[in-house]
Amino acid sequence: MSQTRFGRYIGIDYSGAETPTSRLSGLRVFMAVSGGQPTEQNTTTGDGTTSKHMRWNWTRKELAHWLLYQLKDPEPAIVGIDHGFSFPDTYFQRYGLRSWDEFLEDFCKHWPTDQD
User: What's the whole-number mean pLDDT along residues 41-62?
Assistant: First the structure.
């Protein structure tokens, strides 16, 4: 009998669109428990309950809190995030950004995603 390293497998189809509190249809979460099939994880309805009859779109903020909660569980989990972490080269060229630090400063100035 083989043992698996992880008891839970979490896959996230990520979207960085709009604001951290925007409900995004492109933000989806799936989880499989070792040996089981993946199931889509639903967010809460806003009052803290989970709706089995209506699928609410996640917000990035809800997802971050949910993921922190999942990772506090002692059962080991691995998380995969499908996200394009880059801007096109033309963006860097257009704004004269030559380093990662310059990009981060520019990004925080024009795209303050740490705010609701």
Answer: 71
Place of tokens 């669109």: 17
What are the residue boundaries of the structural domains of the chain, listed by start?
Answer: 8-86
Q: Of 64, 73, 49, 55, which Cα lies nearest the Cα of 12?
A: 64
Helix residue spans in 25-99 (DSSP H): 60-72, 89-94
Measured in degrees and rounded to the nearest 5, phi and psi for residue 111 equal -135, 70
Torsions phi, psi for 52 (to 5 deg): -90, -15
pLDDT for res 52: 57
pTM for this entry: 0.69
Q: Under a CB-based contact definition with an 8 Å cutoff, are residues 8 and 35 in contact? A: no
